[in-house]
Design brief:
Layout (H helix, E strand, L loop, with lengths): L1 H12 E4 L2 E4 L8 E10 L16 H11 L5 H5 L7 E2 L8 E12 L2 H13 L6 E8 L12 E9 L18 H11 L4 E4 L15 E9 L3 E5 L4 E12 L6 H13 L6 H6 L15 E7 L1 H6 L12 H26 L1 H9 L18 H16 L22 H4 L5
Parallel strand pairs: 5-12
Antiparallel strand pairs: 1-2, 3-5, 3-6, 4-5, 7-11, 7-12, 8-9, 9-11, 10-11
Enzyme class: isomerase
Subunit structure: Monomer. Forms a complex with RARG and the SRA1 RNA in the nucleus.
GO biological process, one term: mRNA pseudouridine synthesis
């Protein structure tokens, strides 16, 4: 009996054949390697870049395509961190990207991924998500942590910078003097500042709100033909380069500059926004925001002898990116703006923005025509009673009286 047990135990480990030891064959170990993937997308149909349960995102479509191509398993698709999937920037809902960078670990096959990878995925992905290329990276590459800087652009009609004496419509043309004034105001943001007022749920003493801005510039205006209304509309592109950005930061910066140029607030309010008092800064629409480029200058210099660069992908790919950016993103962005007139609607509401906010709130309360009309009615009632509004607490916007309607306010919102 003892011999039988011994034989069974030995049999599980190896087979003894002709006096030698024959081990059970093991599954071949698949060598893994890290890869960078460069992609662009039109984000208006998606709830941002990052994976979210039961919501369409860029990552959900990308992971589905990789699974269909046989690059990853179903388990890896559900838990992408298992193959070290990361992205350089977490773009918000409806925000697009011309050069988003992702990193991942896949079975090593440089020839397939670098030569055919983009084509394989593009045949599976929806038309509003395009992969431009893949490159082998170092084993410790991380697209978010090793990204030196990020460049974004914001495209909008130039009439956002119309003065109170100028018409806010398609006939507006930005003067060189106003363009210079815009760039002068944008320069206030250069350097390191506390942007707690430009995001949500962050306190003044939260050091993570400190961000470094390298450049911030409004480019020369350009004309785009509105085929529906048979007229040329002038647009501008604001380009910002920074180390990194907090949630909503760029859209609120643009909103603040527009408010100052339109003389709805003082220029000095920008400097005060970096200080301890809570302000409700208006946030420009998300349609015009685009992630232009992620910069890996330090990585490229350090690994120039062993790996291809990740900031510049060569003339052929860069030309394809520029073509796709215009056709897929910029053109659609402008045409959507002309069709929906979203910026005009936002500007109509901007005249009612009072910049006040509850300093104890995690984020500013939402304002509507009804709540603002209620606040105005309450203020007028106090003045009629001879009580200074400042002497009492600000009325709660949620307590709008039922009889107050938005029509009277809407009639005065054309500025």
């Amino acid at each position: 009996m003892t011999k039988t047990v011994e034989e069974q135990t030995v049999d599980k480990l190896n087979h003894v054949q002709s006096g030698g030891v024959h081990k059970e064959p093991k599954k071949p170990r698949v060598k893994q390697a890290k890869y960078a993937m460069l992609l662009g997308y039109q984000g208006k149909k998606y709830y941002g870049m990052q994976l979210q349960k039961d919501l369409p995102t860029i990552e959900s479509k990308l992971l589905e395509a990789m699974e269909t191509a046989g690059w990853i398993t179903t388990a890896q698709k559900e838990k992408p961190f298992d193959f070290f999937f990361q992205r350089a920037a977490r773009t918000d809902r409806a925000v697009s990207a011309a050069r988003q960078m992702c990193g991942m670990q896949l079975p090593r096959d440089d020839a397939k991924y670098q030569a055919e990878g983009a084509g394989i995925l593009n045949n599976i992905l929806p038309a509003d998500i395009r992969v431009f290329g893949m490159r082998r990276t170092t084993n410790f590459f991380h697209p978010q942590k090793q990204c030196d800087h990020r460049t974004y652009s914001y495209t909008c009609p130039s009439f956002v910078f119309a003065k109170p004496t100028e018409l806010t419509n398609s006939s507006f043309r930005l003067s060189p003097e106003t363009l210079a004034e815009v760039n002068s105001i944008l320069s206030i943001y250069l350097g390191t500042h506390n942007f707690f007022n430009y995001t949500a749920k962050r306190a003044y003493d939260d050091m993570s709100s400190n961000r470094y801005i390298i450049s911030f510039e409004c480019k020369e205006p350009f004309l785009f033909r509105d085929d529906f209304r048979k007229e040329d509309v002038e647009f501008v592109q604001i380009v910002i380069k920074g180390q990194s950005f907090v949630l909503h930061q760029i859209r609120k910066m643009v909103g603040m500059v527009i408010t100052v140029i339109r003389e709805l607030h003082l220029k000095s309010s920008i400097q005060r926004s970096f200080e301890g008092q809570r302000m409700d800064i208006p946030m420009a629409p998300g349609l015009g925001l685009l992630l232009e480029r992620t910069h890996y200058d330090s990585y490229d210099r350090k690994n120039s002898k062993s790996h291809e660069p990740l900031t510049d992908w060569g003339e052929i790919i860069e030309k394809e990116i520029e073509r796709t950016k215009f056709e897929l993103i910029t053109k659609d962005m402008i045409e959507t703006e002309l069709l929906t007139q979203g910026m005009l609607k936002w500007l109509a509401d901007l005249v009612h923005h009072d910049f006040t906010a509850n300093a104890e709130a995690e984020e500013p309360e939402k304002k509507t025509f009804v709540t603002m009309a209620a606040a105005c009615a309450s203020k007028a009632a106090k003045e009629q009673d001879g009580v200074a509004p400042e002497a009492q607490d600000a009325p709660k916007e949620a307590e709008a009286p039922a009889e107050v309607t938005p029509e009277p306010v809407a009639a005065t919102s054309s500025g």
